[in-house]
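so my prof wants the structure for this chain in the tokens format not the other one, which i didnt know existed until like an hour ago. anyway here's the sequence
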Amino acid sequence: MSLLRRLPPAARKTVWPWLKYWRTLPGNAQGALWILLAAMVGATMAASIKYVGQRIPVFEILFIRQLIVVAILSPVIAQKGLGMFKTDVLRLHVMRGAFAAVAMATGFTALVHMPLAEATAIGFAQTLFMTLLAIVFLGERVGIRRWSVTIVGLVGVLVIIQPGTEAMNAYALLALVAALFVAGVKIVLRKLSQVEPPTTIMIYQSCFVTVIMAGPAVYLWVMPTIEEFLAILAIGALMSALQGAMIQGLKVAEAVAVAPVEYARLLFATIIGIIFFAEIPTTSTLAGSLIIISSTLYTIRRNATLKERAKSED
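here's what i got, hopefully its the right format
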């Protein structure tokens, strides 16, 4: 409301009916729209990375982007002091920072050298990898149905990558590595979020990734043009917008209800790829995407069912 009062009267008159209508929407509907916005922003960010990465090294893009993140967080550090770096789980922070650095470097490189739709589809495999990593690191028990659907999803990845054929894109393996390490980041975050405040988690990751990227960025440095530098700034802004939209969407809606909407990112990536990069998705990409999306949706739904069952038994 305070933001609405700051608007000029004409703008306020236009915005107010839409705001009233928004408030009448159920939480799941609001969440779905937030996730849809996140999907659109994510696809746009991927396209920006692909555009800038044609000339600027990926490590340099990541380093500049991380400097921007650290600059944004610096007022928080100044206000709370070095005490916010105090932690009893430094090992987990180091793991998350290392995993994030590998995920970003491999994922950004794959985006630059692969069709957007193909890289995006392989990225969805992170949900399948989370099942495997949860068994190893969290000791979770997985039944035959979740094992089966995970294997089916990984088959979908193979359909896209087509290993051993001339159609195989070597950078698809980097996209797969990125999906694995993104899953690793999320698994570590599960443990960290139980013992650390969000600001400490964010600052540790930002500082670690910035330090890791500094050496390769300086070594491979290419002076960006004004246009390229602005595009890198836009990538940082889009990343923040993506995280904000995702958080807001999951805040007002049930995760299971809005999970399918996230896969709209593949649609947006496909459209952007066709229009701006003349990338026509192959039959194998479409078929593999369908298999991956179906299996990950089942995994998400199954996890939610098991959580509900566990709560009812408590």
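also thought this was worth mentioning. The chain has a mean pLDDT of 85.
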